[in-house]
């Protein structure tokens, strides 16, 4: 039972006279109070890493105004901390202790107290303390609160036992979820929102003697203890103390087996008794309780035996440990049976509630762990930036194994399937190999390389215990203003289809027979269908301009552009498909814009029935909430449309119970539920999770290994697109003296982009790897670096300016939502200064084309570097000629934003650089003119008839080089359109027609 908060309420006039009496009234054996803040000026207004008080808020108006005020009625000293506030979102202030000094030890005290001047406004004031971590802004937050329902000064007392772990926000995602009072980094106050107010506070101090239960705790080695029938479960009980000090008083643990689904005397031998840890017992002492189970010959589902613990003298475990006699002897557990028979047997045994649980996916950070068994959850995920602490492969595996252990307490012990957005490598994991984003892979035009990047990603993901990847994105990006455009392989469905070899890299063979391997994962084709075609200005999500908007197309455009990649994915055996947040409006169908999560004609009709997709459909993050109607209608609509599993990060309880209610009422059919659960179970069996639910970390040593990074380095090199190369400036010679400048030359955060460690990514030194500047230096180049080009520019042979975007993801990065397609003022200035002083190469590090036409004349060589990932040496490889430039534009590079959207195949097409453009180095350009092109066309047509794709591609490439050589720097609409069309025809396998289009472009050059 929590201790009540106590308060001393005094009129200001009596306060000074009575305060000594109050202090003398403390218990005789209590330690004296320890001041934290007196507010007499001893602590400055300052922030990390210094010792200081600072304000914060949800926007610029929310932080309160603070001052140290002279007050005659100050409870202590002459000054108090006073302030005013007018908070619309959230706001407050913090005192962080100095990060360059040791954390404070508060473990000898009962709690923290302070004086607060009340105004009887009914506002709730939250008070947080900061525990563990490396400093006050990288610690765990523990919160308590009080209500301003009084007038005048009141001493607020908050026992440490009243503080609870914050579940809505943690700056580092949580550390150990244990209030460790020996490492305190300060406190924070959150003020009431919604009305103007003022406050005053004084004399923050620690008080009272610590209760042993605040520093001593009893725990068990696990919340769940599975045991084979007939075996003996062993539950280890451990006593631990804060600061590892011995206990002052004895601790007793009484135990007994009671309740559960197992029958005492029949399924197990009941046990009871008491464990005693005498006074003076050291922290870490443990004892074991053994519970024997009994064997019979019948097949059974799993049975539970709760072990009830009653603890005195220490904090009891948060949960009653469960002993689980494993399910055994049932057909679905037999790995020799075909998967379809195992699925049918298991499905026939499941209750409605168990089926609803399998259709529910929760986020790890919003999860009550015991709910895995209580709700029979089928899946968990980590969203962008949702990681264990520390963020290591071992911690990931331990975390996921812990979740899987919880699933063992369910009746049929159906394993969880855990998913992550590993969209360019295992990008949530610190130290993983980070690949170029998909737009860069599209530029490589190398399906074999795409498959290898997928294989590296799968191996690193599976080695951390994760069997499911929410990738690849098969969107066909039709407007570069979209904040997700870099997640697309390109604007041409033929290009996207050609790069779907990544599915085999992730999953292995199309029949799913490789999914049980320790280096393969279940892949996800997303976002079905048309997310890359949303119209600018059509989004209704917050401040987004295009993401999650409306795609308006004819039926033929839908099939040719957006559906085609998903048909290819189904043929390649894709395991799961994720519908888009966006709405689809098919001209003439009479439906108008409908959210994809609700489009049964597309999910049930097109995907499952016409294409024959036999995996399962997983919704996007809280997508069900975007549908019309009340929650029951939203659930019913999505499930009936064909969504098999719902991603409901923090509302998993609500979804599961609502689905059960709708099914009991007959508004969701039993056959629909059985279809959904059968699909989910099928993939779990194919992944081998029933036989091997826990992480196989045998491949963990290869995470971020030189072999894996070599694949990423090659991908970075092949993704570089050389757009202009006046006078053959590239490749550079290592003997040249090079001046390097620009915001993205030495910033690995910018280089890796969004979806790197966190959802939005971040600039700076975020992940291990090599920046472009470091790659140039490691190549042995003679390099001088000045980020802003402020260093003198005289005496250099050539300048390299690396400019571009800062990281973003999804609609946050939409153009018009704080982003544009123009370089920053600092980047433009760096280009102007360097290119005005010497021959220059400009590299653009970005997720989409940047408008550079007004400076193109002063730039000698221009490179589209995209987002190359962690291996900057790959960029250096092509700059210095260790590898040739071979990349080609995966999207059209516009002259101006007014041209957008602009795509290959448009009737009007006059870009800065056309789709497919990409100059080469290290390759001799063939000689010849119209006659040579005529011969190439005939030979390419013959190769097409023979089905000789390799020769067909080579012949088209020779024709393309001829056109680019003749065109030089003179780009016209008459040249650009057939040139772009030719690349589409090449990817579609029409080699003869591709050369004919290139011949047309040659004539226009």
Task: Explain this structure.
Helix 18 crosses helix 20 and helix 23 runs antiparallel to helix 24. The chain is built from 24 helices and 38 strands. The relative contact order is 0.07. The chain starts with 6 loop residues before the first strand and ends with a helix. The chain has 1005 residues and is α/β, with parallel strands linked by helices. Strands 1, 2, 4, 5, 7, 10 and 13 form a 7-stranded antiparallel beta sheet that branches. Among the domains are: 177 residues, Sandwich (Jelly Rolls); 116 residues, CalX-beta domain (Immunoglobulin-like), CATH 2.60.40; 172 residues, Glycoside hydrolase family 3 C-terminal domain (Rossmann fold, 3-Layer(aba) Sandwich), CATH 3.40.50; 109 residues, no CATH class. A hairpin with an 8-residue loop joins strand 8 and strand 9.
Fraction of residues in H or I helices = 25-40%
- Structural category: alpha/beta
Query: Roughly what is the average pLDDT, rounded to an integer?
Result: 95
Instruction: Point out poorly predicted stretches.
Output: 1-25
CATH architecture of the domain at 34-210: Sandwich
Distance between the termini: 84 Å
Q: Beta fraction of the residues? A: 15-25%
CATH topology of the domain at 34-210: Jelly Rolls
- The total count of strands amounts to 38
Task: Supply the CATH superfamily name of the domain at 34-210.
Answer: Galactose-binding lectin
Question: Helix count, per DSSP?
Answer: 24
Biggest sheet statistics: 7 strands, antiparallel
Query: Over all CA atoms, what is the radius of gyration?
Result: 32 Å
CATH class of the domain at 34-210: Mainly Beta
The dominant shape is globular
Signal peptide: 1-27
Protein name: beta-glucosidase
Domain Calx-beta: 205-310
Keywords: Calcium, Glycosidase, Hydrolase, Repeat, Signal
